[in-house]
Amino acid sequence: MQMAHEKQNETEAEIIDGKSLAKQLRESIAHHVSVLVEDHKIMPGLAVVLVGDDPASQVYVASKKKMAEQAGMRSFVHILPKTASQDEVLKLVKSLNAQKKVNGILVQLPLPKQIDADTVLKEIDPAKDIDGLTITNMGRLMAGLPGLVPCTPLGCIMLIKEVEKNLTGLHAVVIGRSSLVGKPVAQLLLRENCTVTMCHSRTQNLPHIVREADIVVAAVGKSAFVKGDWVKPGAIVIDVGINRGEDGKLSGDVDFEAASKVAGYITPVPGGVGPMTVACLLGNTLIAACRQNELTVPHLS
Ligand code: GUN
Prior knowledge:
The chain is of the alpha/beta class. Helix content is 40%, strand content 15%. Residues 106-109, 131, 151-152, 180, 277 line the site of guanine.
């Protein structure tokens, strides 16, 4: 199909600035938080559980804490040693479920080997599951019912809609089938009336399928996996990958340099999906706090 922005010449794609969009979203959330505090004396609380000392996870958790506080929320960071038992983690989650001041709970993944992530996630109260990873929230997303939706997929959709408001009939190709990104983002794209193709490590003729895509969401966890000549001219390319090279530099799942010569729009790494994930996490905490107090959920944009 011919998209409005389909490019005629080989020019650089427009960069979708996730950093700036995330800042706007966080400002809107901070405004709604201040109203909640002022009118209802409710300050949303975000609890983050970190087990172990993975340096990348430490950075993400610190950023979530800082951003929550900047948005006027309470933040509670619980750090358990990497030798913590499953029972200890479950006990902590149960205690957070019971705390009124905690509206959202996030257990930072991955967890150490001795802990079964599914068992831990199952224990989170679905009303506080701001990662949208409980079976209840996954089911609600699938059924089209209101619930809490995973943050990275929410961020991806906002980035796409920033450059194309109406996604009806567009062909979206999702690469990666994780519960955190691939599966939920496919559901959200379906909700937007896209035709969705799910691809994964066993998919045959992947370059051929990606060449058919008006929208590509790459969530594979392999640096520069999606090549420039896989991209359809004018396509919207959303790069979810955060890969750290031996030199410490971050790169995405898309060969940015090559793909940006063909795509219409593309997200950079860093500065694309990453900041949106954190902003959407705060959005989910606000939504959870409103619902738990039977208040109207504000529209976040
Ligand atoms: N680790 C990397 N990304 C995420 C995320 O979105 N949620 C959680 N809980 N852990 C993560």
